[in-house]
Amino acid sequence: MSYAIGVALCLLPCVAAGLSMGLATGKAVDAVSRQPEAAGKINSILLLGLALTESAAIYGLVIALIMIFTR
Fold this sequence. Notes:
Blueprint: H1 2-10, H2 12-34, H3 39-69
Helix pairs in contact: 1-3, 2-3
Protein backbone atom coordinates (compact mmCIF):
# COMPACT_ATOMS: atom_id res chain seq x y z
CA MET A 1 0.00 0.00 0.00
CA SER A 2 2.77 2.45 0.85
CA TYR A 3 4.37 1.64 -2.52
CA ALA A 4 1.28 2.91 -4.35
CA ILE A 5 1.31 6.08 -2.27
CA GLY A 6 4.94 6.65 -3.21
CA VAL A 7 4.15 6.28 -6.91
CA ALA A 8 1.19 8.63 -6.56
CA LEU A 9 3.43 11.21 -4.89
CA CYS A 10 5.86 10.93 -7.80
CA LEU A 11 3.01 11.74 -10.19
CA LEU A 12 2.05 14.95 -8.38
CA PRO A 13 4.45 17.04 -10.52
CA CYS A 14 2.50 15.88 -13.58
CA VAL A 15 -0.73 17.24 -12.13
CA ALA A 16 0.92 20.46 -11.00
CA ALA A 17 2.54 20.93 -14.41
CA GLY A 18 -0.77 20.51 -16.19
CA LEU A 19 -2.45 23.08 -13.97
CA SER A 20 0.40 25.57 -14.22
CA MET A 21 0.62 25.20 -18.00
CA GLY A 22 -3.07 25.94 -18.35
CA LEU A 23 -2.74 28.97 -16.10
CA ALA A 24 0.31 30.27 -17.96
CA THR A 25 -1.33 29.83 -21.34
CA GLY A 26 -4.42 31.68 -20.17
CA LYS A 27 -2.31 34.55 -18.86
CA ALA A 28 -0.37 34.68 -22.14
CA VAL A 29 -3.57 34.85 -24.16
CA ASP A 30 -4.78 37.64 -21.88
CA ALA A 31 -1.49 39.51 -22.32
CA VAL A 32 -1.57 39.19 -26.11
CA SER A 33 -5.15 40.39 -26.22
CA ARG A 34 -4.13 43.49 -24.25
CA GLN A 35 -0.93 44.20 -26.21
CA PRO A 36 -0.96 42.50 -29.62
CA GLU A 37 2.31 44.20 -30.63
CA ALA A 38 4.18 42.25 -27.91
CA ALA A 39 2.92 38.86 -29.10
CA GLY A 40 6.31 37.63 -30.29
CA LYS A 41 8.08 38.36 -27.01
CA ILE A 42 5.23 36.92 -24.95
CA ASN A 43 5.17 33.80 -27.11
CA SER A 44 8.90 33.15 -26.73
CA ILE A 45 8.80 33.58 -22.94
CA LEU A 46 5.71 31.37 -22.74
CA LEU A 47 7.34 28.58 -24.75
CA LEU A 48 10.45 28.66 -22.56
CA GLY A 49 8.34 28.47 -19.40
CA LEU A 50 6.20 25.66 -20.80
CA ALA A 51 9.30 23.66 -21.75
CA LEU A 52 10.73 23.96 -18.24
CA THR A 53 7.40 23.03 -16.68
CA GLU A 54 7.00 20.04 -18.98
CA SER A 55 10.46 18.79 -18.09
CA ALA A 56 9.47 18.68 -14.41
CA ALA A 57 6.41 16.63 -15.34
CA ILE A 58 8.47 14.24 -17.44
CA TYR A 59 10.94 13.72 -14.57
CA GLY A 60 8.08 12.86 -12.22
CA LEU A 61 6.60 10.44 -14.74
CA VAL A 62 9.94 8.74 -15.35
CA ILE A 63 10.56 8.29 -11.63
CA ALA A 64 7.07 6.84 -11.18
CA LEU A 65 7.62 4.40 -14.07
CA ILE A 66 10.97 3.36 -12.65
CA MET A 67 9.33 2.72 -9.29
CA ILE A 68 6.56 0.65 -10.89
CA PHE A 69 8.78 -1.52 -13.07
CA THR A 70 11.63 -2.12 -10.61
CA ARG A 71 9.47 -3.51 -7.87
